[in-house]
Write a structure and sequence with these properties.
single chain; 503 residues; alpha+beta; 7-stranded mixed sheet; globular
Length: 503
């Protein structure tokens, strides 16, 4: 049995541990008056007396982390990894490599300099939290390479499939642009804040003289400063939101630079990152689903991003389970030609198990109202609410009118999205796979699930659906934690026929 690298102690301390050190270290500095001049000097004795309990808490946390490191050991065998934890209450965990869905290796600049890596491995068994991993170790480079080589050999399984692709920089920037927060939402919020605060400022400025008549000059000057600062404040908030989007775009780009996928048998190796290097080793057999995602703009321009659902990939904070960052859905490019990837070509080369010849059943025209009435009701409600508020508060007529217009834009956009969703929603089940298309808010999804990775299909009907013979289908996949995929308003007889045919 081996211990981890000592740097694992840092991970065993509390997340708020470093926040305690800031005031603690600041207390070392004291300011004293000497010859009429303030001087900064270190007073260790006085500091120790005043912060003895804080020092005790920090030392206790460090001791607990070192203690946990001392009694956490691991052993890598040919077919499994064994973990031993605890001293009084000892826990032993054995995980067979065949049960591992994905292994992730993370190396930041400090880890690279010290020749160590953080290794996280996950199975479909539930963990204490969604972000926790079944195995989380800080290993030396040799042990990390030894572990990954065993997984790669096991997952490869002597299959003849060998393929790879790399992602050019401009494609990675396109992906980061579309998936850095919500671009259209950021623009809309920035516009709303800038213009609305401008309207408020103009309205108050117009009535300024009447409002402050009879007040003292000092108070008038104070109020004027407050009013004149409203419009710049709105612009400042907009700048902050815009800066947040740009930072998200930059982080996503840097995080996914050098994105590369290699397929060897049933083993997929994904590497990415510029400052922090990440390597994922994925067992194809454990992939629950592929998900082609589009927003409305991507759909109009024939672009899509393909994600995969596999426990351990895209699980941690700020991770996106991307498989094909940006691809074209309407045109086919010869293999090796520069440009956007064609989704069919890449999927057939890298992940042919999830390529399905689909013949979707679609919602009947009678069910169109279920797609359109929620956003249509929202579009109608916004001007009605605005008119009521204008009657009650006529003083803010310009502001309320502008906010009504700016609020109606996403509502109308949602109407277009749901109208397209009615024509694209569909379901197909054959002997090997379930394929479905659905829309969730503004996002369009096309999923493909192998039947052996299908957990359950739930069919629900409300009273109107029982009358018109329609139903909603919720698809659940077999993985650690999963959310259902809802396909609305399908013909119940056609769905039952599909299920019987696949059995």
């Amino acid at each position: 049995m081996k211990r981890q690298h000592f740097l694992a102690v840092v991970g065993y301390t509390s997340k708020r541990f470093w926040m305690l050190l800031i005031p603690l270290l600041r207390g070392l500095l004291s300011i004293r008056m000497q010859d009429g001049i303030d001087t900064i000097r270190f007073d260790v004795v006085r500091w120790a007396k005043g912060t003895k309990w804080d020092i005790a808490v920090v030392l206790l946390m460090i001791f607990a982390a070192v203690w946990r490191w001392l009694f956490t050991k691991y052993e890598i065998r040919d077919d499994r990894i064994i973990l031993m934890q605890g001293f009084i209450f000892r826990r032993k965990k054995e995980i067979r490599f065949s049960n591992i869905c994905a292994a992730a290796v993370e190396e930041d600049p400090l880890y690279l300099a010290l020749g160590i890596s953080r290794v996280m491995m996950d199975t479909d068994a539930p963990c204490s939290t969604k972000k926790a991993s079944d195995v989380n170790l800080v290993l030396k480079k040799g042990d990390r390479q030894h572990l990954l080589s065993k997984l790669t050999v096991l997952f490869a399984d002597r299959s003849s499939i060998k393929s790879s692709y790399t992602v050019p920089l401009y494609i990675m920037m396109l992906f980061s642009f579309f998936f850095s927060s919500a671009f259209s939402g950021v623009v809309l919020i920035m516009t709303a804040l800038s213009v609305s605060t401008s309207i408020i400022g103009e309205t108050l400025e117009r009535d300024f003289v009447n409002l402050v008549s009879g007040l003292s000059d000092a108070l008038i000057e104070l109020i004027w400063k407050l009013i004149s600062g409203i419009d710049p404040a709105g612009v400042a908030v907009s700048v902050v939101i815009g800066t947040g989007f740009l930072m998200s775009f930059m982080f996503n780009t840097v995080r996914h630079l050098n994105f590369r996928i290699i397929r060897r048998g049933n083993c997929i190796l994904i590497s990415s990152g510029l400052l922090v290097r990440r390597i994922y080793c994925i067992n194809v057999i454990k992939i629950s689903m592929t998900d082609m995602r589009q927003n409305l703009m991507m759909k109009l321009f024939g672009l899509a991003s393909v994600h995969i659902s596999c426990t351990g990939y895209g699980k941690r904070k700020r991770e996106i389970p991307v498989f094909i960052p940006i691809c074209a859905t309407r045109r086919k490019r010869p293999t090796g030609r520069k440009g956007l990837f064609d989704i069919d070509t890449v999927m057939e080369d890298i992940l042919p198990e999830f390529v399905a010849d689909t013949d979707y059943i679609r919602p009947d025209m009678l069910y169109a109202w279920r797609f359109l009435w929620p956003p249509a009701l929202l579009v109608i409600s916004i001007p009605l609410i605005a008119m009521i508020l204008i009657v009650l508060i006529p003083y803010w007529y310009e502001l309320l009118r502008f906010l009504a217009i700016i609020s109606a834009i996403p509502a109308v956009w949602l109407v277009f999205a749901k109208a397209i969703a009615f024509y694209t929603t569909g379901l197909d089940i054959d002997k090997n796979k379930l394929s479905a298309r659905y829309c969730k808010w503004f996002s369009f999804h096309s999923i493909c699930v192998p039947l052996e990775r299908l957990s359950k299909i739930r069919i629900t009907q409300n009273l109107p659906q029982r009358i018109n013979r329609s139903c909603d289908i919720t698809v659940y996949t077999a993985r650690e934690y999963t959310d259902g995929h809802l396909i609305r308003s399908m013909n119940v007889s056609q769905v039952q026929k599909l299920i019987r045919r696949s059995m």
